[in-house]
Known about the structure:
Elements: H1 9-20, H2 25-32, H3 35-39, H4 57-69, H5 75-84, H6 96-100, E1 110-111, E2 114-115
Helix pairs in contact: 1-2
Amino acid sequence: MGKAVDLSEFDRGQIVTARRLGTSITETARLVGCKWINDGDTSSRRQDVGRPRVIKEKRRRRLSRLVKQNRLQTVAQLTAQYNASPSAKCFGTHSSADIVGYGTVQQMSHSCASVDQASS
Length: 120
């Protein structure tokens, strides 16, 4: 990455004057001609950083619907029902219902066919 260029005295004066007049930071940046404000590029370009999600967004929504439809079932029952569906995948060390935020369940053993739950 290159080093940023220092502001000229004129730009510095514009910024100070604009802020004293109550101009927002965004408008002040636009006035001075900041690259990020004029291009509209304020988001990170690094999309795939960090730990991968345990379940994808589509499956998380499906699990959330399942939980809402079966409010009286336990986390173990919901997990078994979710894992019984043909599109369910192996969840590693997390329980599927716990990912959405329903209960605190610890997993005792793991297999890709199902997620075993410890009894609470």
